[in-house]
From TrEMBL:
<feature type="binding site">
    <location>
        <begin position="320"/>
        <end position="321"/>
    </location>
    <ligand>
        <name>substrate</name>
    </ligand>
</feature>
<dbReference type="InterPro" id="IPR002195">
    <property type="entry name" value="Dihydroorotase_CS"/>
</dbReference>
<dbReference type="Pfam" id="PF12890">
    <property type="entry name" value="DHOase"/>
</dbReference>
<dbReference type="InterPro" id="IPR011059">
    <property type="entry name" value="Metal-dep_hydrolase_composite"/>
</dbReference>
<comment type="similarity">
    <text>Belongs to the metallo-dependent hydrolases superfamily. DHOase family. Class I DHOase subfamily.</text>
</comment>
<feature type="binding site">
    <location>
        <position position="55"/>
    </location>
    <ligand>
        <name>Zn(2+) 1</name>
    </ligand>
</feature>
<dbReference type="GO" id="GO:0004151">
    <property type="term" value="F:dihydroorotase activity"/>
</dbReference>
<feature type="binding site">
    <location>
        <position position="306"/>
    </location>
    <ligand>
        <name>substrate</name>
    </ligand>
</feature>
<dbReference type="InterPro" id="IPR004722">
    <property type="entry name" value="DHOase"/>
</dbReference>
<keyword id="KW-0665">Pyrimidine biosynthesis</keyword>
<dbReference type="GO" id="GO:0008270">
    <property type="term" value="F:zinc ion binding"/>
</dbReference>
<feature type="binding site">
    <location>
        <position position="149"/>
    </location>
    <ligand>
        <name>Zn(2+) 2</name>
    </ligand>
</feature>
<feature type="binding site">
    <location>
        <position position="89"/>
    </location>
    <ligand>
        <name>substrate</name>
    </ligand>
</feature>
<feature type="binding site">
    <location>
        <position position="149"/>
    </location>
    <ligand>
        <name>Zn(2+) 1</name>
    </ligand>
</feature>
<feature type="binding site">
    <location>
        <position position="176"/>
    </location>
    <ligand>
        <name>Zn(2+) 2</name>
    </ligand>
</feature>
<feature type="domain" description="Dihydroorotase catalytic">
    <location>
        <begin position="45"/>
        <end position="233"/>
    </location>
</feature>
<keyword id="KW-0479">Metal-binding</keyword>
Amino acid sequence: MTEWLIKGASPLGDDPVDVLIRDGAIIEMGVVDAPGATVVDAEGLILLPGLVDLHTHLREPGREDAETVLSGSQAAALGGFTAVCAMANTDPVADTAGVVEQVWSLGRDAGYVDVQPIGAVTVGLAGEQLAELGAMASSAAKVRVFSDDGHCVSDPRLMRRALEYVKAFDGVIAQHAEEPQLTVGAQMHEGVVSAKLGLAGWPAVAEEAIIARDALLAGHVGSRLHVCHVSTAGSVEILRWAKRNGWRVTAEVCPHHLLLTDELATSYDPVYKVNPPLRTAEDVAALRQGLAEGVIDIVATDHAPHSLEDKECEWSAARPGMMGLQTALSIVIKTMVESGAIDWDGVAQRMSRTPARIAGLADHGHDPAVGGQANLTLVDPNAEWTVVGAELAGPSRNTPYAGMTLPGAVRATFLRGRPTVLDGKLTEGVSA
Ligand code: DOR
Ligand code: ZN
């Protein structure tokens, strides 16, 4: 098997080292000479543990016109990810052992990242009846994260039962926090801008009420709750309170909520329509602060590719969602690293170690070390690139960052010791 020698990379921004990889593992670190190895020149590059995304929409089965497991896996690898958790709102919904095993094996065949399926909490995401959580957990896909994302598990009794059920196998319920009675017809954040535009609002309280309720339930049951795409300043305060109480609550923020605001809706360009919606500058500041402090644990992309028909139409008809896998790291650098709010170790914590731990992905989220599986990412912190929708992987184009010049570029990604990306370009992948 080929040996790879990464020359002169800076692990988490520390002093440069060479890293020798063989048979999927790191076998030597330091000053290394290995005549037979293929050398990857990593001078000036940051070495990170492979990034892990807890919230990715891969669209297969059902909407292969927007994304497939293969195209989404390629986007992920290009973005520096070695593992992604695939959301359950496919068609058919991933609410049975059969569907999660299908997604899992499609991911393995694609060979660009480890695809870990998320199972639905309720049958058909309908919020009425618990799905076969146990069967999904004991399937080949070994599901540990369950979510109706796109929909909120709004029935408190069902939410309680789900939390109780997954406790047996240390599963976690990832909640899309949106009280549906408060967001009927909602098109954007409820505030000054929605009033000006005459669009129905999605109030912050619809998110905050569910997070508070579910934190109480998680505390009561003693189970793990994960809160998807936290978007408001009030949510950060509720999470702070939940953590102070010692409850097992984790939370994610999406790159777009760290950068963009509801002012963008004045363009009526549906590329800015997302659920939960873009909020105010005050919310953005609170989310950054919460992420820096650890009140929000991780960054997750909510990569939500949509077909042109579903996005290039009038605002009210457009589906919510933004692509995010290839831009996530750059947005985190722009919003959090450049300001000094977090350093490279902080990036590794929020985009690799902690998401891997929440998802129970034992092979991911480990700092580069001898003996460890080589799931790694090399980033050029000084590079800049301009986002072009048509150049992103996959059939969809709905990036809100088109035309923006962003800092930081992924140069290489290694999955189990083999490159999925080299020189910033896809390789043929890693067959199982
Ligand atoms: O904007 C969103 N898009 N939010 C969600 O919760 C679901 C997602 C999707 O599936 O497109
Ligand atoms: Zn969601």
